Amino acid sequence: MVGQFRALQDEFAATAPPAHTVAEVSALLSSARRLLAAHAAGDEEQVFGRLFELPGRGQTLIPPVTILDWGPGRLVGETTFGRFHGGANGAAHGGAIAMMFDEALGMLTFLGEQRRSRTASLAVDYRSPTPVGKTLTIEATVAEEAGRKRYLHGALKDGERLCAEGRGLFITLLPGQQ
Fold it and tell me: Do residues 130 and 94 lie in contact, with contact meaning Cβ atoms separated by under 8 Å?
């Protein structure tokens, strides 16, 4: 379902359908909404953001990040920005790039025996256009740790070309915090 929804978002972003197609798709989406509404769940039971076996945990808004390799203080993964995440001229939207960094850096804070963290700040430097529809590499590292604070760095690359860099401050949650 998540894969189909991601594909639907990309198809939606890449089309200019005629009125009769708009009406037919609208009816299909209305039916899908009714089917899903019958299975409404609370935050802890919902599938969105809780499917840990899927890239992005099943969140369809975030560009999916697949972990290729990880170890203490580092992560290497892949991501592909679809048309849904496009800005203009075949380049990813800067906001989508920022979401991807938040996801990848957040994944790094959670790997291994780490306690859950929350993003305190995130800064992104855009170095060159980030292509849509191409598999890109994301590298993330822990730059520094100080108490509950973790300073992280990420680099998004198209081959050897640096597309963007992200820096984040993540705060480890105290027991009982969510």
Answer: no
Angle 49-46-120 from CA coordinates, rounded to 5°: 40
Query: What is the domain count for the chain?
Result: 1
Asked if residue 92 belongs to a domain, the reply is: yes
Averages of pLDDT over each 10 residues, the chain, 178 residues:
80 86 89 88 72 68 89 94 89 95 90 80 98 97 94 97 98 85
Residue 6 lies in a domain: no
Domain membership flag for residue 78: yes
Number of Cβ within 10 Å of residue 122's Cβ equals: 18
Output the domain CATH number for residue 109. 3.10.129.10
Does residue 87 contact residue 127 with C-beta atoms inside 8 Å? no
Residues 6+ apart with CB under 8 A from 66: 55, 77, 78, 79
In a domain, 57, yes or no: no
pTM above 0.85, yes or no: no
What domain range includes position 146? 62-172
3-state class (DSSP) for residue 43: coil
Asked if 100 and 49 count as a contact pair (C-beta separation under 8 A), the reply is no
Query: Which of 59, 100, 94 minimizes the C-alpha distance to 80?
Result: 100
